[in-house]
Amino acid sequence: MSTSYSQTPVSAPSTWDVFLSFRGKDTRNTFTSHLYAAFERAEIRTFKDDSELHKGEEISDSLFQAIQESKSYVVVLSENYANSSWCLNELAEILSCCKTTGRSLTPVFYMIDPSVVRHQKDSYKKAFDRHLIDFGKEKVDRWRLTLFEVANLSGYHVSGDR
Fold it and tell me: So which residues are the signal peptide here (predicted)?
């Protein structure tokens, strides 16, 4: 289940079959590591950022390049995903690439209801309240819209009972 955006895809070189976006604190050593291993077993070239901590607020040029050189995207949305400005910047770039290239994006709602992400409730609301102070309304509004659009895509919901 994934969605393509552009009706006139722009071709670009691709190094990766899948770019995996996730909040390391929530899923690095659980769901995401298992998903990454499954992709490896299937010989799917997958980009997974292994840095535990990111310095600064902006995504590095190499990460932008990996996003732009990926054929598709899997975004693991979890309880603390919106706490990370790094994740939100990454997601905004992913969505932008999807819209300009027609590549697919598959959201995975890991232990969080999609409506929490879509409507930015609970932990997402708290995260955005904090981000407003640090980053301002314009950037936060862009992140909100990005999450709303991604949460409206057909994806997978992984809950504790599944």
Answer: none
